[in-house]
Amino acid sequence: MRASLIQIAVDEDEPVGVRRRRVAALVREQAGADLVVLPELWTTGAFAFEEFGGAAEPLKGPTYEAMAEAAGAAGVWLHAGSVPERDPDGTLYNTSLVFTPAGDLAAAYRKIHRFGFDRGEAVLMGAGREPVTVRLPQLTLGLATCYDLRFPELFRALVDAGAGALVVPAGWPERRRAHWTLLARARAVEDQAFVLACGTAGSHAGVPQAGHSIVVDPWGEVLAEAGRDEEVLTVEFDPGAVARTREDFPALKDRVLGLAPPRR
Description:
- This protein has 264 residues and is of the alpha/beta class.
- Helices cover 25% and strands 27% of the residues.
- Helix 1 runs parallel beside helix 3.
């Protein structure tokens, strides 16, 4: 299976419409990949809190339309990163979109864990409620976004739902880059799954971004890692490694806590 993670540089002087067209062109260039992944909130920047309200789109807004067309043109599964979505009731969400190779919407995931504590995303956006998976022909993807990476219980739920690859778009800051790499590898090891974590380059509202998008295999080995600048990180991996790893080292079978109680 071939995956391309597009580590987009967010330039605060680049108009959103220009960036949207540029990213759509980059997606179309990935024809031949099975899966393409974009970062979190790449239209606005994950730390551009003041922009969320004005830049928010309906689910099927301009980013949806541009990414659906690009996925269909390239013939790829596209995780289009996330956008600030405005629900019809007015609530904002940090929403990820996944498209089929025909350009149809396969899934939408509203970020469950919102970052910021008592400010920013945590107070401006609503929280998603349900884990989301997407079944590809080769394996099932489990969806998470940025700050979600710090909450292993979400990833356990995704594995329980059949996920063999965990896809994490992010706008992760440079000052916590060590956590980014550590947590990506930890989620891969403990869940015996591939982790495809796609970050951004550039700066979001003055916050330098970590870059260093990374693909980790079910043993925790790093298959590929980007640098700090904008780039396309492409990697080939064997989806069958998930089943082999779980069979060779069946640690998931020894879980005790967090499992549903037996029926009586």
